[in-house]
Amino acid sequence: MSLTDVLIGRPLASSEDQEQRIGPSRGIPIFGLDALSSAAYGPEAALTILLPLGAAGVGYIVPLSGAIVALLVIVYFSYRQTIAAYPQGGGSYTVARQNLGERFGLLAGAALMIDYILNVAVGISAGVGALVSAVPSLQPYTLAFCLAILTILTIVNLRGLREAGAIFMAPTYLFVGTLLIVVAWGALETFLSGGHPHPMVPPPRAAGHAEAAVGVWLLLKAFASGCTALTGVEAVSNGVQAFREPVVKNARATLTAIIAILIVLLAGIAGLVRAYGIAATPPGEGGYQSVLSMLTAAVAGRSVFYGIAMASVLVVLCLSANTSFADFPRLCRVIALDEYLPRSFAHRGRRLVFSEGIWVLAILAAGLLILFGGVTDRLIPLFAVGAFLAFTLSQAGMVGHWRKNPGRGARQSMLVNGLGAVATGITVLVVLAAKFLEGAWVVVLLMPLMLLVMVAIHRHYRRVYQETRPIEHFLHGHPREPIVVIPVAQWTAIAQKALRFALTFATDVRLVHVECEDDPLVRDWESLVAAQVREAKLPMPKLVTIPSPYRTVIHNIVEHVLELERENPYRTIAVIVSNLVEKHWYHYFLHNQRAELLTALLLVKGEPRITIVNVPWFLKA
Amino acid sequence: MSLTDVLIGRPLASSEDQEQRIGPSRGIPIFGLDALSSAAYGPEAALTILLPLGAAGVGYIVPLSGAIVALLVIVYFSYRQTIAAYPQGGGSYTVARQNLGERFGLLAGAALMIDYILNVAVGISAGVGALVSAVPSLQPYTLAFCLAILTILTIVNLRGLREAGAIFMAPTYLFVGTLLIVVAWGALETFLSGGHPHPMVPPPRAAGHAEAAVGVWLLLKAFASGCTALTGVEAVSNGVQAFREPVVKNARATLTAIIAILIVLLAGIAGLVRAYGIAATPPGEGGYQSVLSMLTAAVAGRSVFYGIAMASVLVVLCLSANTSFADFPRLCRVIALDEYLPRSFAHRGRRLVFSEGIWVLAILAAGLLILFGGVTDRLIPLFAVGAFLAFTLSQAGMVGHWRKNPGRGARQSMLVNGLGAVATGITVLVVLAAKFLEGAWVVVLLMPLMLLVMVAIHRHYRRVYQETRPIEHFLHGHPREPIVVIPVAQWTAIAQKALRFALTFATDVRLVHVECEDDPLVRDWESLVAAQVREAKLPMPKLVTIPSPYRTVIHNIVEHVLELERENPYRTIAVIVSNLVEKHWYHYFLHNQRAELLTALLLVKGEPRITIVNVPWFLKA
């Protein structure tokens, strides 16, 4: 059993594809981790923006969360329809490309790709950040932890879809379960206490006086920050084909479950935060505590349950990057099938996943993590722009879809999607405006750049198709047999093998030989070669000697071959190159590498009628 | 004009060899810099060992120098004879190999190679050390200076023998001239003053009382240190073929001139040091001054002449490494011609010098300089062991030579060489004993190791000769025409080109195709291929489809080819591989590298009857 077998598992046959497919129970951890984990940071992000409002700020969380949930519902309906309309997957990219045209499709694709790469770096970094803030002595190992988690995610995903789903089920459901218990428990306490529950552990008192007056801009910024909770909602639509039959039904059930849980969590957290009067604490300062930690402590006290809940939050944050690992390769695959990315993204690896996408994602994310030393705070403003742009393009695309496919319910659907497009479009503008100077401009620059690269790739593939399109009568004017050139330095068994081979198929064979002093090949040509060829009744090869005043060898042979090619415009020149294959790598230095050099130089010349025949000689010594 | 033309010069034709050869005037700087520069440090090295004797120590320098000069004379006569006996060059290596056997020859070769490499590092480092001790603000740039000088030496030597000689003439003759003036002037003053000259600048007073009593061991150590002045004497004998006709006469004249100058300088310096009462100052301490500096100041005062003399000493120290650049490549060439080193050492580069030896020397010396940060004091004890071992083996070899070639004067010559062998043999023991623990043990370990490697190289080459020796009737049982295998993924113009080429020379052609869904090649075989082949009246190729349950492609093709090879034990299998040659390197990622992988995998299998035919396709896109 090889190391690869141990790490990645045995190869899976293409016929095992159906068994690898998943249902909703594994679909939720695979495609939902990103969305669900946002319950842990979305409300907190909004509350942090509201900090300058003091205790009064907490009151705004309920309407803000209401708006976010409403947007979530719209986006949900949109992607539900997308799944049914485009069961081949590809989500926003496919929808936008089919209905808005190539450029918008690629824009959506580029936006999502950027977001997925950022999500891996930021997600892992956030999880590790929470870990080291809980255990400060681990601080120096931040980057090491980040890369270790990235490695685990990469390996698990390379092992295939089913296994990844199985591995991520436990932490996902523990996280969802404990948070749902907190929400239910808190709601019960609130109900029983008539809206004024008594916290088990009182949250830190929020600053009572407002430092700033409430303003539209502040609320919009809080909304934009809270909207990060929506990222990951598109995940299922990109990977519809990962589900088992009936594909659409299973994918939809998964999406519905993810969104339903997310809504309950977001709404529940918002309500309880107001009921318990929990304000955010300033991040990065002493006494910082996450909103979820304060809320859980207020509802359940600092019990064993609190410990379990907090541990599951931490694990899920670390693993939220997994959604990118599920989606990025699938998105790349769909784009690669349309030939806007290297075709190799569409190849299934040994475990039936699109391995190249997994590797590229892991390498890019590792690069970001290393570049920022494992602390990716400066990348957060770049985040979410891509997701919301993709949402907008996807919904706009769906409007076009319904227009092209009128039918029962098409009008209502078009209305839902139109509303969604407008709402998410406004959100893009708000997010961009709120974060532009902080870094979102990088994404704005990067997207058109990626678009250009993808268009260039597509154009290259098209040209190659044009160039390599089969011609109709490809055997017309069938060319004559090739001229065979055998460069020979010394008359050895290697040269004999080359000549013997050449004489099996060609009549015009030339031994080309760079002149040297006291030349045994020239001197003994008759006895070494000519007599034997005559005896075997084979066509007589020519001996060509080339002078070499400057002691060069390869250059002279290349020149001779090129000349021959020019003089014989209708024939192929087959150059027989005797590759000496050493048994040990360290013998490399003991032999000249003329065969390799000659091959490389002949290829560089770019003459299509020159072919190179490698007749290898395997050294036993 | 290319960069290489500017740096190294235009290529020289082999016919220009005679014009590149040199006479004594250039031979002295090229082969003599190492020996001559030792006048600057040999006497000082002996005086430093005598420091514990106080002022009394200075008195011993005259008998010590006398012994060293006597040894020098013996070695000189020995190499004079070697030059005449072995005008092909190779010096100690050739003499020892011819007369004492392979192992002793290689030992001498290894000893000299180690010494030459050390000489480059130590020589450059000593020159730069003198420079930075004169201008301490340059201290931080020590390594940079060392590498700069190494680069200059490398380039100058790559430019060819004549140019190197021309460039090094000025500093060499300036150095020799000024030192001879100092010696003559000092001798005159001493004579005129009746043996007690009055110094222009009095040297620092030597410690009057002895810290140690004089002992045999101390004198032997002083002798061993002073003997470093002899290194480089063998240089001319290695490079006899660098001289113009009459080769032997020119080489001998050069050797004689070098030795004569060196004897005058060594004897003169020793005499004047005693006459002026100059003791060494402890190196590495404040107030350190080199013996030559004190002597020149005492004789000539701190005048302009003093400045010129000191500057020329500094330059010559830096350039003393050049002797290694002249000899190391020539020594490697002679050993490579005997096939104990990679044969490429024997190739003449564009300027008729043995470029590979120059490069290897430069790289190894750069490695040492970088490893030791440009300060190679710790390497000095490793030095000179090799040279003296080579001297000993060379003289012992000459004794054998005279025994085999008795004739007029052979008896006397044998006597001289026998005396030399004993004297230098004792010196090796003294040098080894004096410096063993300080580092000479490294050389003692390294030499047999190099010997083993060289013997292994030789054995490898012998085996390869055995293996590749031409067989007598190489066309007997002439094999049948090859089976041609064309791996085809899609039916493109590329595949058409491969098939068209195959049909020009073979009748048994098989298109091998890894099965995929909805296979156009299988479906349309008749119209795409079969009909056209029939129409052109060519032999019909077979279509072979291979299943691929695990989506592998190359592996299946390799397996198929190997099977075919096993089933057809008397035929060659020619696999046609269509190399897609991209126009731009960045297109590499857009195409699979199956052609390269397939070639590599087929070669790795090591089956001699499989040949690979590269039919390149040059992309225009």
Task: Provide a brief overview of the structure.
The structure is a homodimer of 621-residue chains. The first copy, chain A, is mainly alpha-helical and 621 residues long.
Description:
2 copies of one chain form a homodimer. With 621 residues, chain A is mostly helical. Chain A folds into 2 domains: 3-463, Amino acid/polyamine transporter I, CATH 1.20.1740; 483-618, Rossmann fold (3-Layer(aba) Sandwich). Helix content of chain A is 64%, strand content 5%. A 5-stranded parallel sheet of chain A has the order 3-2-1-4-6, sandwiched between helices. In chain A, strands 5-7 form a two-stranded parallel ribbon. In chain A, helix 19 links the parallel strand 1 (483-487) and strand 2. Chain A starts with a helix and ends with a strand. At the A-B interface, helix 18, helix 19, helix 21, strand 6 and strand 7 of A face helix 17, helix 18, helix 20, strand 6 and strand 7 of B. Strand 6 (610-614) of chain A pairs antiparallel with strand 6 of chain B.
Topology (SSEs and partners):
2 copies of one chain form a homodimer.
Chain A lengths: L2 H6 L8 H4 L3 H26 L5 H5 L1 H25 L5 H10 L1 H33 L7 H17 L2 H32 L23 H11 L8 H4 L8 H30 L14 H10 L3 H16 L2 H16 L17 H17 L13 H20 L5 H59 L14 E5 L5 H13 L3 E6 L5 H4 L1 H11 L6 E5 L7 H14 L5 E5 L2 E2 L12 H12 L4 E5 L2 E2 L3
Parallel strand pairs in A: 1-2, 1-4, 2-3, 4-6, 5-7
Sheet bearing the most strands of chain A, described? Answer: 5 strands, parallel
Which oligomeric form is depicted?
A: homodimer
Shape of chain A: elongated
Largest interface: A-B, 79 and 79 residues
How many domains of chain A? The number is 2
What is the H/E order of chain A? HHHHHHHHHHHHHHHHHHEHEHHEHEEHEE
